[in-house]
Amino acid sequence: MADAALKAACTELQRQFHALESSTSNEMQQLSEIGAQLSELKLMLTDHDLLYPHDAHNQEALVLAREVFEIGVLWSIRVHDIDSFDRFWNQLKPFYLDLRDKLPPSPNHEPIIGLSLMRDIATNEISAFHIALEMLPVDFVRDSKYIQHPVLLERWLMEGSYSNVWRERQNVPRKEYQYFVDMLIETIRHEIASCEEKAYDTLPLNDVATLLFFDSLPEVLTFAKERGWQVNPTTQTVEFANKGKDSVNEEKIPMRATIASSLQYARELESIV
């Protein structure tokens, strides 16, 4: 049997996290309380030699430790702490991989595996994404909505179908996925912005907003400031600090063609909607 104090602490952590998921107020206070609970529980797990699981532990204690690390992973995303996410995920992996056939299934298993794949995509670690994906059973990848979400996003990224990625932000399988989708969108914006800077000296402000998937002018202005662009309020244009003027024409033509095609596609979508 698991230590009574450890079991009671885990039960309280679960209660607090479930309350957070159903709450609509005081989220920051609840997150802070959960963070304090996680710190205490990690110390208790250390005292019980449960940070690194092995067969000498009884099943109940292992399940409790797994639940702590699962909540730690989800909590880390809620507080936007990637380093914490990585630490909890690395501590959780042995429970998912080494003890997969020795512990009862966890309802958090599929969502968290999907989140780990989302983390790889959002930080442009595509090789790590494919390695992790190849380790998963084929039917698991095919049948899980949590796994199919990052698989689809990665496919669209490779195809350059950024508009599909943008639309999918409203179709996440779980709240925590939104964080990584937003991170991915920001990466895409900077990729597109780099192409704009090399292909053009100036573009209409509305076209820039459309290309970068912004819904409001203040968002465009903030992004422009970050990139060092000049916005002309009179002509409603963005002037780029074009460092690609001396580039060969062969490099500039495809960029112009790609951006022009994207703009035309975006305008057609807007007219349909």
Automatic annotation (TrEMBL):
GO terms for cellular component: cytosol; nucleus; proteasome regulatory particle, lid subcomplex. Keywords: Proteasome. Pfam families: CSN8_PSD8_EIF3K (PF10075). Coiled coil: none annotated. It comes from the Eukaryota. The keyword Aminoacyl-tRNA synthetase does not apply. GO terms for biological process: proteasome-mediated ubiquitin-dependent protein catabolic process. Signal peptide: none annotated. Residues 83-259 form the PCI domain. The keyword Transmembrane does not apply. Gene3D superfamilies: 1.25.40.990. Belongs to the proteasome subunit S14 family. This is PCI domain-containing protein.
